[in-house]
Amino acid sequence: MTFGEFYDFCIALSNEEPVTPFDPNTLVFKKKCKIFALTDVERFEFINLKCLPEDAIEFRTNFDAIRPGYHMNKKHWNSVYVNQDAPDKLIFQLIKTSFNLV
Q: Which CATH architecture has domain 3-101?
């Protein structure tokens, strides 16, 4: 997955413009003013995504690329590392799930 593919997918889901509230490199996508995805624009290595707690554990068990959310509530957020063992199709599904949870 490229940053452009991630960006275009998130923009298509949300009618809110992405923002950088934490620092110039951390891009945040929101739905109704609540975060559903964030990533580093300079080093697009992973995406933080909201997840149901029971699903979060299952994904972390099945994929090395899915880990507890970096700098996030570990119960409700995963860091999904791109271009590793989680297929892009799954990552897009996880983005949509995160969007639907907020």
A: Alpha-Beta Complex (3.90)
What is the structure's pLDDT at 15? 83
Handedness of CA 56, 65, 73, 39 (dihedral sign): negative
pLDDT in tens, 10-65: 999 998 999 999 999 999 999 999 999 999 999 999 999 999 999 999 999 999 99
Q: What DSSP designation does 51 have?
A: -
User: What are the domain boundaries of the chain?
Assistant: 3-101
- CB 91 within 8 Å of CB 80: yes
Cα 74–49–27 angle (5° rounding)?
115
The arithmetic mean of pLDDT across residues 67-92, rounded, is 95
Cα gap 40→45, rounded to integer Å: 7
| SS3 of 54-96 | HHHHHHHHHCCCEEECCCCCCCCEEEEECCCCCCHHHHHHHHH
